[in-house]
Amino acid sequence: MRYSHYVSAPLSIRFDAGVLARLRRRVSASPGATVSGLAQRLVDEGLRMAEHPGIVFQNGPSGPRATITFGPDVWELVKVVREIDERGETAVEAAAELLNLSPAKVRLGLDYYSAYPDEIDAEIAEADRASVLAEEAWISRQRLLT
Question: In this model, does residue 32 exceed pLDDT 90?
Answer without folding.
Answer: no
